[in-house]
Specification:
It is a single chain. The chain has 294 residues and is of the alpha/beta class. Helix content is 51%, strand content 14%. It has an eight-stranded mixed β-sheet with strand order 3-2-4-1-5-6-7-8, sandwiched between helices. Bound molecules: guanosine-5'-diphosphate. The site of guanosine-5'-diphosphate has 18 residues, from helix 6.
Length: 294
Amino acid sequence: MSDLDQGVARTRQSFVGRLRGILGGPLDDAAWDEIEETLIAADMGAGLASRVVEGARARRDLEPELAVKNELIGLFAPRRTTGWPHVPGNGTPAVVLVIGVNGTGKTTTVAKLGHRFSKLGAKVLLAAADTFRAAAIEQLEAWAKRVDLPLVAHAAGADPSAVVYDALDAAAARDSDVVVIDTAGRLHTKSNLMDELAKIRRTIGKRLPDALPEVLFVLDATTGQNGLSQARAFHEAAGLTGIALTKLDTTSRGGIAFAIEDALDVPVLFVGVGEKVDDLLEFAPNDFVEALFA
Ligand code: GDP
């Protein structure tokens, strides 16, 4: 069994276990209703589930199971063919800004990503720009030690943009290939948070005009449709270029992957399938659908 297979085991059991049972029998209206309910239970959202079922029912050229699979795959956002993160070249490091609400797995994902890029041969630098919580800095320090990566951090309460500026200087001095930045998930108000993210983006733009930073939104798969409205707000403020869907191992509601891509047209690029540093997988839409139906 592949890692992704294991990561989606819970979603598969509830989702496709049921779908298979229904798709195997005669497909009357009641059966299609049941398929729709199964999709809703996997957290696809009612509107989307109904669209998928309507689309699949209308297909005359495919068996029902293939028709459903096809509709699901059609929901995914387009992927960039030039790779992620964007590599600016000319000695400018790639920059990945990791954003999202507290508790979703942001800091863990920063460490996992850094470790992943480092294993692929990149020189990685981490930056602790969640200065709002002292614990967040300590947590990233502990991770950096564990995965043996350099970290730029300031004291709690420092200006996050100053941390980012220093990190970009350090990256230039060390000839780093990629800088992965942890950010706050909560400030005194939501508008503070969005303003701060905008300020960090401006700082990156000033220091590295060619960087075209990636903005990775961390979405906790267990938060369901709630996470979707969070994602929308962050997308408006910061312009997401990718999504990391965390805690997929703990939930049967992996249908959120379809819902978020369909809603934002931003690709899920990584999935978190555990608490260990290697528990971050690249997300490939076709493999995901195949793993669900495996
Ligand atoms: P942050 O507040 O967003 O920075 O979240 P943390 O990185 O501190 O993670 C919150 C909790 O979620 C921690 O206990 C992590 O170990 C856990 N966590 C993060 N990602 C995953 C995942 O993919 N699977 C599981 N099972 N737990 C995760």
